[in-house]
Amino acid sequence: MILGIFGAGGNGKTIVDAINIRWGEESPWEKVLFIDDVVEEKEVYQCQVYSYESMKSTYSPDEIELLISFGEPSERKKAFDMIKRDGYSLAKFIAIKTYMPQNCFIGEGAIIIGAFINSDVKIGDNTFVTVDAIIGHDSVIGSDCIIGPRAFVAGHCNIGNQVYIGPYAVIRDKIEIEDTAVVAMGAVVFKNVARDYMAIGNPARNMKKGDDFKVFK
Fold first, then answer.
1. Is a pLDDT exceeding 80 seen at residue 148?
2. Closest CA relative to residue 90, chosen from 98, 80, 99, 82
3. Fewer CB atoms inside 10 A, N or C side of the chain?
């Protein structure tokens, strides 16, 4: 089986590094490649680069599985839906130095790199939990989310779909973050955050996102 990483930027390189650190030459994938419709290079980080269409014409769904590296939740959702529509499947990847009990659940395409996941946590499809993030017990993380480096989500929280939680953000226990919300870098959240709102500051205040809002522009 071949692994295709959708997105040849910084997150994609981080995934390649994490795979090499965990398995070295004994990787479960015979080859790792990038899928990227923007970069013009044919090789990035010693991995071949395919456009999405060229990947489809080269590999059948039985030959390749995918991971999505994008840091923008809406772009993660878009790529996931396209991949599933075309009959391809997504891998799950848990990097070395990740702490996660066996009673946790992670969905299709989830990526966890060096995070601390407590008991009875559920993580949805295509969510990316990054280095040193902490997810408290009995919390639910939706699909297509980004949990940034060293973010802390306390126990019994409910995080919706396409949520971005920035680096060093802190979310107290029993908080609900609704779909497509953003918790800014370093924010300390004591109150629920509504759909399409952004929590900023310490203590965090909630602000309505603009219609064209992107985490990364």
1. yes
2. 80
3. C
